[in-house]
Amino acid sequence: MSKEQMNIVIVGHVDHGKSTVIGRLLADTGSLPQGKLEQVKADCARNAKPFEYAFLLDALKDERRQGITIDTARCFFKTAKRDYIILDAPGHIEFLKNMVTGASHAEAALLVIDAKEGIQENTKRHGLVLSMIGIKQVVILVNKMDLVDYSREVFEKLAVDYAAYLEGLGVRPVRFIPISAFQGDNLVSGSGRMCWYDGPSVLAQLDAFTKREEPVKLPLRFPVQDIYKFTEEGDARRIIAGTVETGEVRSGDEVVFWPSGKRARIHSVEVFSAPARSSASAGEATGFTLSTELYLHPGEMMTLASEPSPKMHCRFQANLFWVGAAPMIKDRVYKLKLGTARVPVKLAEIVRVLDADDLSSTHEAQTVNRHDVAACVLETLKPIAYDLAQDIETLSRFVIVDHYEIAGGGIILQDLPSADSVLRQHIEQREHCWERGWVLPADRAAVYKHRGKFILLTGAEGDTRCQMLAKSLEKHLFSSGCKAYYFDIANLRSGLDTDVAAESDVRAEEIRRLGELGRVLTDSGQIFITAAPGMDAYEIEQLKLLVKPYDAFVIRTGKNEEDLPGVHLALDADEAVSDAVAKVCRLLKEEEILFEYYL
Amino acid sequence: MDGLTKLESQSIYILREAYRSFKSLCMLWSIGKDSTVLLWLARKAFFGHVPIPLVHIDTHFKIPEMIRYRDDLAIRWHLNMIVGENTRALAAKETFPDGNVDRLGCCKNLKSEALRHTLSGEWTRYRLNHRTLKYEPDENREPYTGVIVGVRADEEGSRSKERYFSPRDKYNEWSVGDQPPEFWNQFKTDFAPGTHVRIHPLLDWTELNIWEYIDREKIPMTSLYFNQGSGKRYRSLGCYPCTLPVDSEARNPAEIVEELRSGKFANVAERSGRAQDKEDSGGLETLRREGYM
């Protein structure tokens, strides 16, 4: 049976002695490979410099040259109780993203403070990051006690000050341990030089950390990572794959998928080369088949129908930690990743930027800069299912991708009603500023014999029938004397969209541009017909908003597996083209877009 | 949940994340225990299928048993098997066994260079035809933008700084000093054109974990890892001129686990039988930056 394993991160200000702590732990517990200690000692002797335990970790040439730990390094280390991986995070501020990476994969943290130098900027900032990352077990090592004559007063003063700081972050440290990594006091065993301290050594403390239990008691959260249908060797299974984040699910349970709202029952729990089973719980990478075949996308969240649903607003308040080289700004579309969902997102509002040095003070800001922690309002351009940090922590965590790079991470604290969305504000603003000519829409209608209209035809993804129908409609209307114009969404990609083509998620921007174009051409009195296969309900809603003050007319062609709200006319897949066109024209007349007596 | 199952779940999550995110994805299979465990994990992740091509770089100096084992599993498990090589260097005999370059130069020619050009699609890839059971030039010359590799952090100094998703630039360069952050379980799955990402699902596994898992899952391994009566076995597999067996009585995975846990190898580096590591104290680091696994 394999031994228990635990990841520990070690953080602290630069030169406060993290590497020495680890080097010492490895050496004093005999965790180093044979000959390693002697080799490093010999290296030091050859280069005429005093041996330091920190050198043991400098495995890389680069590191030795710069004399600082440049990245999150992993050290393997064992006690009789368990195997540890110690993630050594660098203290320099420019390596804060490495520290975040280390802390993200840890269950407990050791934060090192130099007894002589006291609390420094990164001592505070690292505390702040630990609280945001959500590490519950934090132990403070007050190092270099040998330099302050093992003074109890110095230690206690530091402990009181730093505990007060952590209190403000909602972090309660497990304890403070006075150590000298250099001399080996309180590292592996106790210290005769600090009899006033009766707590455990660092080693004993490590073994006293408790393993995080898998959150099986929370409501089920299963982010759908992918849908597999491998047909090889006659495999007919359609498997919903992913990892159970929280809770438990069994065969036969009724489940709901978010944001689509689709429902089904779990038919089976799928495994390969393992005993058959009928349930899956938190922490397990697994897969399910459903009793009814649903058309699902990766990124949906599966929950139990009988348990509380996740939040599903497009607007929420979050604490955000930014590590991107470029600051986070408003009016730029980023990608948000939460669970397995990936959606476009905008920074709607910066509530305040926290000052890491003094948490009580904050300042207003227009941008979130590198290494800032900010409370801000974000708005996704598509609905996404999430939970609040106080309810289900793991499903409140997200990252922001800026130009291919993870540039920030955060936790959602509050959901906000989306009535005043960024888009609505934009449209209000746009219409307010719209400079009008002297020709009114009614004047144009009188001359053109019809009103301007935005007509959208959509169908299943990859279905070209809606394009064919749209072109037929254009031809028919044009032959009847209308100013009709067909424009395919694909035309954007080679034209208007070329400046965004390099970005990974262009869809939201494509919809926006199509809508803006629709607004202009409809205003010019044309019947603007566009075909865009694969539109979902949310995108249709966005387009409808964008062409305001005009009302869009939405037609759906072909057989669809689900009802699409907001559709004015649904056409069957086998409906003759001429019949379909006639149907549309009849409706346009009813709506008084086409004036009856002219057709 | 026990430690091994946890490692398994995390690796499966990473494999699925890679499969979802990269259109042109491959997995390196060195025939060694780590990448074979990775292959097994892929079968678990994808419920018995391996929807990712497996790339093996053949130096033509591999221990013959390794190649036999590779083709045997490829056929049995219906693998999409791709083989690449440095045809030019082999023809020009620019190898260590031919006496024309040193060990590291040989690794560079037969592994780094072959790998780089096979991944980019510039050099011919040979694909196993499951009907004829022969390798044929592969029509697909698309560069692989996601490359899954079975490295572990405990193997060697430079590997302990890798990310689960680690970008390489156009020249296969690894920028150790400027790596992307990994918040929680969110990885770098977006990449600029011309770059690619190395994916490391086994980063947190140790050599001991690997053998415990092989033992638990009954994963078929090449017999080279086991003592067949001679009192010797390989602990790490490579090319025969540079890889030496170690003295060991271990005849099966369970005995190897025992040996690693408490026996003679508890504190001896795994690659101690690999001669090229010894030529230069930072040699592997240099090779690694150039793309060698």
Which helices and strands occur, and which strands form pairs?
The complex is a heterodimer of chains A (599) and B (293).
Chain A: E1 4-12, H1 18-28, H2 36-46, H3 61-66, E2 73-78, E3 82-88, H4 96-104, E4 108-114, H5 121-133, E5 137-143, H6 152-169, E6 175-178, H7 202-208, E7 222-228, E8 239-243, E9 248-250, E10 254-258, E11 263-270, E12 279-281, E13 285-290, E14 301-304, E15 315-322, E16 334-338, E17 341-354, E18 362-363, E19 373-380, E20 397-402, E21 405-416, H8 422-433, H9 441-448, E22 453-458, H10 465-479, E23 484-488, H11 490-494, H12 507-523, E24 527-531, H13 537-546, E25 552-557, E26 569-571, H14 577-590
Parallel strand pairs in A: 1-3, 1-4, 4-5, 5-6, 22-24, 22-25, 23-24, 25-26
Antiparallel strand pairs in A: 2-3, 7-8, 7-14, 8-13, 9-12, 10-11, 10-14, 11-13, 15-19, 15-21, 16-17, 16-20, 17-18, 17-19, 20-21
Helix pairs in contact in A: 4-5, 5-6, 10-14, 12-13
Chain B: H1 3-21, E1 25-28, H2 33-45, E2 54-57, H3 64-76, E3 81-84, H4 87-91, H5 103-120, E4 126-129, E5 134-137, E6 146-148, E7 165-168, E8 196-199, H6 207-217, E9 232-233, E10 246-247, H7 253-261, H8 283-289
Parallel strand pairs in B: 1-2, 1-6, 2-3, 6-8
Antiparallel strand pairs in B: 3-4, 4-5, 7-8, 9-10
Helix pairs in contact in B: 1-2, 6-7
Characterise the protein shown here.
The complex is a heterodimer of chains A (599) and B (293). Chain A has helices at residues 18-28, 36-46, 61-66, 96-104, 121-133, 152-169, 202-208, 422-433, 441-448, 465-479, 490-494, 507-523, 537-546, 577-590, and strands at residues 4-12, 73-78, 82-88, 108-114, 137-143, 175-178, 222-228, 239-243, 248-250, 254-258, 263-270, 279-281, 285-290, 301-304, 315-322, 334-338, 341-354, 362-363, 373-380, 397-402, 405-416, 453-458, 484-488, 527-531, 552-557, 569-571. With 599 residues, chain A is of the alpha/beta class. Chain A has 4 domains: 4-208, P-loop containing nucleotide triphosphate hydrolases (Rossmann fold); 217-304, Elongation Factor Tu (Ef-tu), domain 3 (Beta Barrel); 311-418, Beta Barrel (Elongation Factor Tu (Ef-tu), domain 3), CATH 2.40.30; 439-590, 3-Layer(aba) Sandwich (Rossmann fold), CATH 3.40.50. Mean pLDDT of chain A is 86; it is low at 59-70. Chain B has 293 residues and is an alpha/beta fold. Chain B has helices at 3-21, 33-45, 64-76, 87-91, 103-120, 207-217, 253-261, 283-289; strands at residues 25-28, 54-57, 81-84, 126-129, 134-137, 146-148, 165-168, 196-199, 232-233, 246-247. The radius of gyration of chain B is 18 Å and the shape is globular.
